[in-house]
Structures are given as C-alpha cells and as structure tokens.
Amino acid sequence: MNKxxxxxxxxxxxxxxxTLWKDLVEIFREIVEHRELxxxxxxxxxxxxxxxxxxGFGWAIFMPVLNMLIxxxxxxxxxxxxxxxxxxxxxxxxLLPWNFLASSLKxxxxxxxxxxxxxxxxxxxxxIIPISLVFVCLVDFAVASSVxxxxxxxxxxxxxxxxxFLPVVLLVQIALTTGLxxxxxxGNLFYRDIKxxxxxxxxxxMFVTPVVYPLDRxxxxxxxxxxxxxxxxxxxxxxxxxxxxxxxxxxxxxxxVFVSIxxxxxxxxxxxxxxxxxxxxx
Length: 282
Known about the structure:
mainly alpha; 74% helix; 0% strand; disordered N terminus
C-alpha cells in the first residue's frame, strides 16, 4: 500500500466518523425538539392498548404470572430444579424482563405499518413511533413488577445494597430493547415477512436465554455461546441484584453493556438514514 492510498483511507475514515457524529447530534436534537410528541404518542398508545378491556392493566400482569405458574408446576413437580431460591420467585424474575423485551419487539415490528398516515404525510422523527411503544411496555413492566415485590415479601427475600445497581441493569435493557425495536420496525417495513421470522426467533429465544432455568446449569461451549446473547447477562444481573444480594458477574455484564450500546447507536443511525425511503415502501 503506497502513501497516497494510506492518506485516502485515513481521510475516508475521518469523514465516516464525522458523518456518524453528525447523525448522532441530529438524532439527539430532533428527539429533544419533539419530546412532547413522544410523550403524547406514548400516552395515546397506552390508552389504546387497554381501551374497552375489562382487566385493563391486569393484562400486563396476566401473562408473566400465567407463565410463572406453568413453569413452576413443571420445574417443581414434574422435573424438580434447584435454583437456590423459591422457584416461582426465580422464574418471575426472569420472565418479567423477558416479557418487556418480547412485548416491545412484538408491537414495534408493526408500528410503522400501523401508522401509515403519520409516516407518509407528517414530518417528525419516525423513530418516535417504535420508541413510544417501548415506553408503553416499560409501563407494563413497572406494573408487573408489583407482583415481583409481592413474591419477595411472601418468600421473605432479603434486600441488600445491591438493589442500588438495579437502575443500571434496567437502563442497559432499555438500550438493547430500543435498538432492536428500531431495527425490527424498519426491517418489517421493507420486508413484510420479518415479523413472521421474528416470532419464531422470539419463541426459540426464550429457551436459549436463562429465563426459566439457571445459567450455571449450562456448561462448556454452550454456556459461552449463551453468554454472547446480551439478554442472558441482563437477566442474570436482575437475579443477582434482587435475589442473591450481589453485583452481576462483571465480565458477561460489561459485554452485554457494550453490545446493547452498539445495537442502540447502530440501530438508531441506520433507522435515521433510512427514513427518507419509508414512504415509498408503505
């Protein structure tokens, strides 16, 4: 490689970094300017979700509780599983964050297609649509957390200083969930079969993530591969700070932090750059 080629590559790399930085600044500026719209769309989606339903916010609790009961019966009566804590508490602590992720991705996948008039006729940052649905699912997560608190009281689970680390774990999951939601919403707009493939991935993903079984029961290369799944260290981190009274394992958790930030930044920038093509693909 001669000197001129080296200089050209350096200039191209510098321009790419500069463009990425400009995109990030533009994204942040637009979100700040349209923060009221984000709030209003979140409230609208929240009201529409439970409009004319008998149970209302009870639906946010129903699915994780039902799954907890099913898996508790399976892993305490049929195939007993030692988790170190009462199994219903263990299972619900994994199902709660998993349902937050799954619900966010499920609703975000069809969010752009379901708001055709907004996407094609009104100018605003289109990422507000899937992000508002992530916030709605975050409200569901908060409501469903009341059951976890009740279970901790019932089983007399001790609370320690590690609980202070809980907001960090939640922020990492929000970053991962938001990034994936943006990518899936955009992907389903361009390729309509994404939502069907995504449903299969979610169904399988629950069982390759330690949602209802402890990660330490897996050994060897399989465990190494599972740790590469960013949701695995996140769910383990919830259990560490809530049930075990310890901080999460720093190695896997920091890897999950890095991957989550990468997915958030990368997904948001890709979404932002593809916005001008949305109208022609609806």
